[in-house]
Write a structure and sequence with these properties.
Largest interface: A-C, 51 and 42 residues
Strand content of chain C: 15-25%
CATH superfamily of the largest domain in chain C: P-loop containing nucleotide triphosphate hydrolases
CATH architecture of the largest domain in chain C: 3-Layer(aba) Sandwich
Oligomer: heterotrimer
Helix content of chain B: over 70%
Number of strands of chain C: 12
Number of strands of chain B: 0
Structural class of chain B: mainly alpha
Strand content of chain B: under 5%
Order of helices and strands of chain C: EEEHEEEHHHHEHEHEEHHHHEE
Chains: A alpha/beta, B mainly alpha, C alpha/beta
Shape of chain C: elongated
Number of domains of chain C: 3
Chain lengths: ~325, ~260, ~325
């Protein structure tokens, strides 16, 4: 990576409690988010991408989830395990927007009330002015009127804008966007992505964009992590990864989308494993992998350096890379 | 294992009550004043009451009656209520609102008042009590079945079934009934406990089963006058408490199981 | 270059459907939508949420009745009781579209019981054949819906629709709740089935790329109206309606232009709302959002007119 890293996660892993045992959801992995950049995580359902985001913000209930590893924000250790000490980070230094904007708002409160939550007296007027300003920055038409509306009165795209405004009020340096456009229509989707890109340009906002949509990730991100079954299976700069994907899963994923063609799709057999599903100790992708052999069934492979900043978790990346 | 055992015991009690004609050592109504208030002994296992009748035999016969009528009322109201509720939820519209308004009116009568009205018209007897209970108990089932049916109707599965060429009757039977049954079962179990308590209660008040026939509630009432001989009240009382607790537990367990299955 | 035109299987003539919203405002789900579909071809219907594409599917399937208009099946007015078996549908959410208390075998047996005179054994065999047809194994008939993944369950729904041996298959967003890699599997399956069974399909989706992959012709809908139609989907780049253009460009991301930010409908004052509602009733459905909209667009609704062979468009500017 060329620039300076804003957030670094080392050996970060998440496990879910089920009865007496802990089921690994995210396997230990390292991650870095460049300052002012857009880092993308791509993967299918159950690959642990949303869990990873929640972990970075320390949003896990310690009774149900076990988090290991360290997260550093701007060189400072983030107390992801201590909910009370996370307040210094959450909303102020990093913030998050979710997939379904409607469920993120309290239906009984106006949009304005969400912005004014926790404010008293004189603060309120100041904060209201700020909120209107922020909504305006989100290219929200008539922000004053929006403040008085209830969530259900707004369209999905407008709500997502309001949510972005809300999460940027504390002027965080990092915005974690967990499938920000999945619930939206494609034309609205484009507007939201455009807005995020613009925020990045104008305010130097760093982005962590999580999506299952390759198109979204490849257009927005400059660094991509590919996740599968709780593991980072491939990572690298966007152009390297798009032009020369090495991991068979990444290749399969890229080929799965019909790009305005009628040519038969090359598909991966099977489906991604569910959280906690037993993948047999070997490489979790082996059952679906076209180039898997006996060795793949024994022991998980490690993340290896394939190129300067291109990492792959596949034992055959060298030998069978031409496949 | 322990919990299974806990459900096995009431089942055993139900079974021996059902077999009362075979198992009861004495005629439950045969009075023998010479041995009244006898203590527990080999011939009279739980002793005798104020007329010298064998308490064990009376508990068995009483249980048969109490639980039998409770089951009858529960089953009849469940079948009637569920059918009506499903139909009401299924058809919607005017029929639905008529049924629901009607059930609202019936529900606003306190149960005891309804029993008194029926009894005053038809005379005292278990038949009147059962009828009065039926009049209010089906409402529960109808409302629940109706709401569940309504929810079920909104599912695409019903549309898909229609496209598969199934008739409405078949859809009701095959899809809606099967889907709402698991949710109705716990209610059935809980309601049985309620019906049992109600029948015992009315008999206790002298409205239900008439003497000399045995019935748990009535036996408790009889025992009330002879507090110095607690056996008369104790055994039927224990049985009532035991059965009601058991069916409630059963209902809870059924519900828990269903919730696990649903998530 | 155009394919030989087969017999027209389905013809939808100017159907409209209006719902009443809770505030007694009319909601135009469909307005004068019409198209025809030849045997063995696949029509893709694209549009965004609320554009009426699902309602169109339901009206054709006979689940809902249109207020106005007619549906012709093989040239005759469709009597859905008679053609029930030849017109089947696959729904979006497979988990909601099956009875979770029934085993897969039972689910598949239902249309067989109703439409065929097979006995129990023959039905069993047919169920197994159907399961294998959609890429599942015969043993899967003993499983409950819960034991399948979303993609497998959607295969079962497809098998159920095929059990009736339909001529026309209506696919209502069949892929939208599935993972990308599973979507690709189902796209291939559907394209194979279409060829093997010589199915006529109507695919409703918001995913233009998936529609391009499966469909032969395309219908673009907005606000309940068909705004553009093209006979050969390979000419997709020739589409000119401003809404279609926007839909096509949605995939592309431009960071320079500021217009993308202001296109959303925004919060409307009562006056503006009234005005727009009126224009929505009488004018072009897209006028409120169209960058080219002029006075005429708000006052007069353009009809779907043939601009060139195999390309029809509803726009005053063509």
């Amino acid at each position: 990576m060329t620039g300076e890293n804003l957030l670094v996660a080392e050996g970060l892993s998440v496990s879910m409690r089920e009865g007496e045992t802990w089921i690994p959801v995210v396997y230990p992995g390292d991650m870095a988010i460049e300052r002012g950049g857009c880092t993308g995580i791509i993967g299918e359902s159950g690959c642990g991408k949303s869990m990873l985001c929640k972990t970075l913000l320390g949003l896990h209930d310690p009774g149900k989830w076990q988090v290991r590893g360290q997260v550093f924000f701007d060189g400072e250790r983030v107390p992801i395990e201590a909910d009370d000490r996370m307040d210094a980070f959450r909303g102020r230094r990093m913030s998050m927007i979710l997939q379904d904007p409607l469920s993120a708002f309290d239906p009984r409160m106006t949009i304005g009330a969400h912005f004014l939550e926790g404010c008293k007296g004189k603060q309120k007027a100041l904060r209201r002015r700020e909120a209107v300003e922020w909504l305006g920055r989100m290219y929200m038409p008539e922000p004053e009127a929006v403040m008085k509306r209830y969530p259900f009165e707004l369209s999905g795209g407008m709500l997502q804008r309001a949510m972005i405004a809300l999460s940027l009020m504390g002027e965080p340096e990092l915005l974690i966007a967990d499938e920000p456009t999945t619930a939206l229509d494609s034309t609205v989707q484009r507007e939201i992505l455009w807005l995020l890109a613009r925020l990045r340009e104008e305010r130097g906002l760093s982005l962590l964009l999580v999506s299952h949509d390759l198109k979204v990730i490849s257009r927005m991100a400059d660094w991509i992590y590919v996740m599968y079954a709780g593991r980072i299976v491939e990572q690298g700069p966007v152009n390297v990864l798009l032009e020369n994907p090495i991991h068979p899963y990444t290749k399969g994923l890229f080929r799965s989308r019909p790009a305005y063609s009628k040519e038969r799709l090359t598909v991966m057999a099977g489906r991604p494993p569910r959280i906690g599903e037993d993948t047999g100790g070997g490489c979790p992708f082996a059952p679906r992998c076209p180039q898997a052999d006996a060795a793949c069934g024994e022991g998980d492979s490690k993340l290896e350096r394939a190129d300067e900043d291109h990492f792959v978790r596949c034992r055959h990346w060298k030998g069978k890379a031409g496949l | 294992m322990k919990r299974k055992f806990f459900l096995l015991l009431p089942a055993l009690l139900v079974l021996i009550c059902l077999l009362a004609p075979v198992l009861a050592p004495w005629d439950p109504n045969k009075a023998d004043p010479t041995i009244k208030f006898a203590k527990m002994s080999a011939s009279h296992w739980l002793g005798t009451d104020y007329l010298g009748r064998d308490i064990f035999s009376r508990v068995l016969w009483g249980g048969r009656r109490t639980m039998g009528y409770a089951a009858l009322v529960t089953a009849a109201s469940a079948v009637f209520g569920t059918c009506l509720g499903m139909l009401s939820g299924f058809t919607g519209g005017v029929f639905d609102s008529v049924v629901m308004k009607g059930s609202d009116i019936l529900r606003s009568f306190p149960g005891i008042v309804l029993v008194l009205i029926v009894v005053s018209v038809r005379g005292v007897g278990i038949g009147s009590v059962c009828l009065a209970m039926l009049l209010v108990r089906w409402i529960w089932y109808a409302r629940m079945a109706r709401n569940l049916t309504r929810a079920e109707m909104g599912r695409t599965a019903i549309l898909a079934s229609r496209l598969s060429g199934s008739s409405w009757l078949k859809i009701l039977r095959r899809h809606i009934f099967i889907s709402i049954l698991p949710e109705m079962l716990p209610v059935l179990s809980l309601d049985f406990g309620g019906a049992l308590l109600a029948i015992s209660g009315y008999s206790f008040l002298g409205l239900g089963i008439l003497p000399p026939d045995a019935e748990w509630g009535m036996m408790i009432n009889d025992g009330r006058n002879y507090m110095e001989h607690p056996g008369m009240m104790l055994w039927p009382g224990l049985c009532v408490v035991f059965i009601v607790i058991s069916v409630n537990l059963l209902g809870d367990r059924l519900r828990d199981k269903l919730e696990v299955r649903r998530s | 270059m155009r394919e030989a035109q087969g017999n027209t299987l389905l013809e939808v003539k100017n159907i409209s459907k209006t719902y009443q919203s809770r505030k007694r405002q009319p909601v135009y789900a469909l307005r004068e939508v019409g198209f025809s579909l030849q045997e063995g071809r696949c029509l893709g219907v694209v549009g965004e949420s609320g554009c009426g594409k699902s309602t169109l599917c339901r009206v054709i399937a006979g689940i809902e009745k249109p207020d106005v208009g007619e549906i012709l099946y093989q040239g005759e007015p469709a009597d859905h009781r008679k053609i029930r078996s030849s017109l089947q549908m696959v729904f979006q959410n497979s988990m909601d579209a099956v009875n979770i208390h029934l085993k897969a075998g039972k689910i598949l047996a239902e249309p067989l019981e109703n439409f065929t005179s097979l006995n129990r054994n023959q039905r069993e065999q047919e169920v197994e054949r159907l399961l294998e047809l959609v890429g599942l194994s015969a043993e899967d008939k003993a499983k409950y819906p819960r034991q399948f993944s979303g993609g497998q369950l959607q295969r079962i729904c497809i098998a159920r629709a095929l059990a009736a041996e339909p001529k026309l298959l209506l696919l209502d967003e069949p892929l939208s709740s599935l993972d990308v890699s599973v979507q690709a599997q189902l796209l291939n399956l559907l394209s194979d089935l279409k060829k093997e069974l010589h199915l006529t399909c109507l695919l409703v989706s918001h995913d233009l790329e998936a529609v391009y992959y499966l469909a032969d012709k395309l219908l673009v809908m907005y606000g309940g109206a068909a705004v553009e139609e093209i006979e050969d989907i390979r000419d997709i780049c020739a589409l000119t309606h401003p809404y279609t253009r926007r839909l096509l460009e949605a995939g592309e991301l431009e960071t320079e232009s500021g217009e993308a930010g202001q296109k959303d409908e925004g919060i409307l004052t009562e006056e503006k709302r009234e005005y727009l509602a009126a224009s929505f009733r009488e004018g072009c459905v897209y006028a409120g959002h169209c960058p080219r909209a002029e006075r005429k667009c708000f006052l007069e609704r353009p009809g779907l007119v043939e601009r060139e062979a195999g390309h029809r468009i509803a726009c005053h500017f063509g």
